[in-house]
UniProtKB/TrEMBL annotation:
It comes from the Bacteria. It comes from Ancylobacter aquaticus. Keywords: Membrane, Signal, Transmembrane, Transmembrane helix. This is Uncharacterized protein. Residues 1-26 form the signal peptide. The chain crosses the membrane at residues 36-54, 61-79, 91-114.
Length: 122
């Protein structure tokens, strides 16, 4: 009786497992953020860092860590020996350069605003 219940549970969980595995069949381009989204992130992080720097000089540093983790995951995809060439083939070299530039700005702007505010501390 117990074995029948386990068998029935495994049959019920099989469609759920297939549903969870569906994104695996997507191409590489679907997993990367579009360029417009990257630039919206840059503008949002810059605005948030500026507002935070107006309150305290060190507050933009709180934005920097999650931003650095996001940019590291983005760049890690480009550096991967399997995913990197697939991204360059599907999205083109211009996307990779644009994502690198947006990532660099996302990393530099909070540090720059914190430094400006720290040096002008009243």
């Amino acid at each position: 009786m117990q074995a029948g219940r386990i068998y029935r549970l495994s049959l019920m969980s099989f469609p759920a497992a297939l549903f969870l595995a569906l994104p695996v069949h997507a191409g590489v381009a679907e997993r990367e953020p579009p360029p417009a989204e990257l630039w919206i992130f840059v503008i949002g992080i810059a605005a948030l860092s500026w507002v935070m720097a107006c309150r305290r000089w060190w507050l933009p540093l709180a934005v920097w860590l999650p931003t650095a983790l996001f940019v590291a995951s983005l760049v890690a995809d480009f550096a991967d020996p399997v995913i990197g060439p697939a991204v360059r083939e599907e999205l083109g070299l211009a996307y990779v350069l644009q994502a690198d530039l947006a990532g660099a700005l996302m990393l530099v702007v909070p540090l720059m605003l914190a430094n400006i505010r720290f040096s002008r501390k009243d």
